[in-house]
Amino acid sequence: FVDKxxxxxxxxxxxxxxxxxxxxxxxxxxGSVVIFNLLSSRWSITQTKVKLVLSLAGPIYQPG
Length: 64
Fold this sequence. Notes:
A two-stranded parallel sheet has the order 1-2. The model has no long low-confidence stretch (mean pLDDT 87). By secondary structure, it is α+β, with helices and mostly antiparallel strands. The protein has one domain. It is built from three helices and two strands. It holds the Pfam family PGAP1. One of its GO terms (molecular function) is hydrolase activity, acting on ester bonds.
């Protein structure tokens, strides 16, 4: 769903002068988990579309 939302957002501005090529994703709490799952599962698709990820109070931890 999130990857389709990214395409929809970028497509909304596609016909404007100087359309954005990238998007910034901001996740709060579980939204951060959703973003990181998207990036880890579809990195080849999202790496050209996502410029920056901000995680606010996300339960992201480094296993180890």
